[in-house]
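Prompt: For my understanding, could you write out one protein's sequence and backbone structure tokens?
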Amino acid sequence: MPVPDSMNVEATPDLPGAIRSAFSAPEIADWLRARERLRGAGYGRTVPRAYERSSLALAPKLGAAPTIAFAKLVSHVAIRVSPRAAERVCTAADTVAQRYEPQAFTAWVALMTRITTQAPESVYPFLENMERLVGRLSEQALEDWVATGLRLAGRDADKRSAYLSLQTAEAQRALEHESGEQSFYDHERRLRAYLTAISGATPPLRVAPTGMGEKAARRVSFAGNVILVPPSLPGYRGETEPLFRAALAHIGAHINFTKTRFEIGQLKPLQMAVVSLIEDARVEELAAQEMPGLRRLWQGCHVAQPGGLPTAPSLFARLARALIDPDFDDPDGWVQKGRRMFMEARERWADPAISREIGNLLGNDLGQLRVQFNAKDYVVQPAYRDDNLGLWALDEPPPEEAQTLEVQVDTVQLRRSEPTPGAGKQSQQQEQTESDRVEKVAPVTEAAEEGRAVASYPEYDYEIGRERANWTVVKEYPATPGNRRFWLELQDTQGPLLSRITGLVRSAQIGRARREKRQAEGEVLDLDACIEAATALRAGEFPDHRLYERQAPPTRDLAVSLLLDISQSTADLVPGTQHRILDMERDATAVLAHAMNEIGDPFAINAFCSAGREDVRVVAVKRFSDALDEETGSALSGLKPGYSTRLGAALRHAGKDLAQVPRHRRLLLLITDGEPSDIDSPDPDYLVCDAQRAVRSLSALGIDVFCVGLGPRNKEQEAAISGRNGFIQIDELSTLPDKLLSLYLRLTR
């Protein structure tokens, strides 16, 4: 339907009153045009009606500009995804408007436009979690959270959808981080070690996902030998690590002292809850007898107060505290009876049968008192205690009434959302477009040994202006055995060059000039010695005649880390020769390493490539503590090209080792033939900016980074990474050994 250039606002009979009262005449005309465009776009009646309903709610809160701009987003979603998704956008907009100011709402519209363009398959699942996301994140934090997911998934549509629908651990971890709340992820490594130390066992410890359609886990859970930990524990405020420690120590007590599960039989949910409470107290008493400090840890988490309404959750929390805190005094008769029965059974605490006996009696008492208990909404208190599912034999379907507990055990099934109509084709086209922009990397077909993860490092995202912690994983791979006669053959073929280079390197003055004080002769007076001599004379003593200081030749005080790029592009032949680029890198490195070894400078040699952010592959050819021997020569000659070039992580890893070497001057010498790239990073600027950040970070640690670029390509990127004064381009690769030597001498003056 054609849209007129101007509209007679007064002659529009169906103009809603909310729009008429909130907008000026020109703004009303703009809104009418936006509405007519949606009506005439062929989406049917539902999309224009959904927009109209949404705009009536948005207009008073946001004003004209965001409300009218929102129409473009609705149309964009309807075209790229589906009319159904466009309707869902209209519903989500009202939720967003309640949380965000007009400027933030406009930023949200821009973010939704980006997601619709880059990840159309993820729009609908993302909208399903909108209330939860905007409830915890500012508009900037939400944008950063989305950017993290898109960067994480790269070109994988399934990964994008799983992340934006909160179905992955990475999504949960990023959500906790962006919301500024401490979560299990912040302490995960220490807590895993703590569980092993407390329980003497190493059960699988997994973070309970809370994806779309899943009921969020509210307490720690265990079943069989699997422990599920929610990212956070609702209802608790304060330092979270002690609470998670208490939770894992409690699970450890169950592992050690709850040897068999209870049969449900004819128990009702109320009775099951009381039996579980007594069992929790029983295992804690046994654990505290072995480790008394656990009592203090657990007791500090109990905050129930005496008195109050006699509801089931209140009575349960008060009894739980009464059973662990001898100073807690509650006037309620049921709480007092529970404590008395538990303490009278002290001699039988090793027998789990007492939990069922006491729990049955106390549960019957509550039933007689007509205390109401809603199992569906019940959450165990205090927050460190588990949900008690692991105490019960749930292999067979429980009685219908007991099913209201509605707690999942063992595993949480992740459900992928169905693609919305029309999204598949758009996604496919997008994947093809992105694929065209990514450098093709030839796969390595040889079977490789499994790498060992040795470190994780942050990575800088220029779009959000900060580093993402623990974003890359460096794995160390064993060196492939090569020629064990490598050094002998190098001596035969490069003997004169090795001798010349060794002499030149020995003559280089590297290190700090030393001042030798208290000398009998010298160029200048030693001020401290002169003062002491004058003091001695005034005291009538004979002074020391060593009153001078002199400048001694500098000692060698240098450590070098050689970092070799062995990505797939190094398999190319050097023009006019039958040698690969990697062969030239290897020979030049060997010549320089031989010279540094002769004069005693500590150095290390590492080679790297990458296959995604979770597999930055490093081969330690020579560590600082290793000798330059037959094994080192075999490792150097056995290097093979393959995979991609994630430079930032490799620089950080090599720099971390170099920073531990106690030397005045520390130099990281990078030899590479191409710009940073990787299979999961279609953005060509992303890894370049991260490598720049890595160089600056190392410079702050006192480490100089210098890049030797091989071949005529990518000069601008390499110069941008290390700076114009930290970069040299070598086009004629046959001159690499001599150029590398002269560079080394210049850098170490």
Summary: Confidence is low (pLDDT under 50) at residues 1-6, 210-215, 396-448. Residues 269-290 form the longest helix (22 residues).
